[in-house]
């Protein structure tokens, strides 16, 4: 291969390379299913380049917010937010929760699992009725206008009004335009450090905006 061709080969940043090395190391020594591995949700391990789990503290904070908003007998939709979904289940609250997720490994949760592909934002089962969730908490898998725009269609279909959106700070203007959300004080964290600044957005008077 010529020097010119070498220059055209995409190079990983030092941050991405470190994360990739950590991932490969974890594959050689995987944690036991259901253990305390910070990169697992229940029995499902984080996938390299497709999923980034929230830290336990962030997942708990977001889950408690969703549970408080939904209230007893309420319904919560977790769209591409599996760590929040798992934490909500562990709270054992008097509410219903569904996970809308592309990763079919979550199908072991039974009827609470809804296969979801943001490329087909309204391709949902007939039993998922419009505006049937008290709150939707969502995290688009990609930092792009297209991804956020398509997922916004899903969010607006599902929610009765209230939305918690977790995405990059660079998506602030698009998020406001598409969903009427504003950046709040609470800053979500991940089990792995991300290169992009990550923020939380809401469209209602939320506890997430009253303290950091």
Structural summary, described in words:
- With 212 residues, this protein is an alpha/beta fold.
- It has six helices and nine strands; from the N terminus they run ααββαβαβββαβαββ.
- The chain has a seven-stranded mixed beta sheet, sandwiched between helices. A two-stranded antiparallel ribbon has the order 1-2.
- A hairpin with a 2-residue loop joins strand 1 (40-41) and strand 2.
Task: Walk me through the topology.
Layout: H1 3-8, H2 14-28, E1 40-41, E2 44-45, H3 56-70, E3 75-79, H4 82-91, E4 96-101, E5 113-115, E6 133-138, H5 145-158, E7 159-168, H6 172-179, E8 182-183, E9 198-202
Parallel strand pairs: 3-4, 3-6, 4-5, 6-7
Antiparallel strand pairs: 1-2, 7-9, 8-9
Helix pairs in contact: 3-4, 5-6
Fraction of residues in helix: 25-40%
The helix/strand series, from N terminus to C terminus, equals: HHEEHEHEEEHEHEE
User: Strands of the biggest beta sheet: in what spatial order?
Assistant: 5-4-3-6-7-9-8
Name the average pLDDT.
82
Apparent shape: globular
Radius of gyration: 18 Å
For the termini, the CA-CA separation is 52 Å
Strand content: 15-25%
Q: Which structural class should the secondary elements be placed in?
A: alpha/beta
Largest sheet entry: 7 strands, mixed
Low-confidence stretches: 1-6, 26-40
Summarize this, please?
The chain has 212 residues and is of the alpha/beta class. The chain is 32% helix and 19% strand. α3 (56-70) crosses α4 and α5 (145-158) packs parallel to α6.
């Amino acid at each position: 291969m010529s020097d010119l061709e070498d220059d055209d080969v995409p190079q990983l940043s030092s941050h991405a390379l470190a994360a990739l090395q950590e991932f490969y190391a974890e594959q050689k020594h995987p944690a036991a299913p259901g253990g305390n591995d910070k990169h697992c949700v229940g029995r499902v391990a984080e996938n390299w380049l497709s999923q980034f789990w929230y830290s336990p503290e962030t997942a708990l904070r977001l889950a408690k917010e969703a549970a408080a908003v939904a209230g007893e007998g309420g319904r919560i939709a977790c769209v591409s937010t599996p760590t929040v979904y798992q934490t909500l289940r562990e709270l054992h609250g008097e509410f219903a929760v569904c996970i809308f997720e592309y990763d079919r490994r979550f199908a072991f949760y039974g009827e609470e699992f809804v296969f979801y592909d943001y490329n087909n934002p309204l391709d949902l089962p007939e039993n998922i009725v419009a505006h049937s969730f008290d709150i939707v908490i969502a995290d688009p898998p990609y930092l792009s206008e297209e991804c956020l725009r398509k997922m916004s269609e899903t969010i607006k279909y599902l929610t009765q009004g209230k939305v918690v959106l977790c995405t990059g700070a660079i998506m602030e203007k698009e998020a406001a335009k598409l969903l009427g959300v504003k950046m709040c004080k609470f800053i979500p964290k991940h089990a792995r450090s991300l290169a992009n600044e990550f923020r939380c957005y809401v469209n209602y008077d939320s506890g997430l905006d009253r303290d950091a």
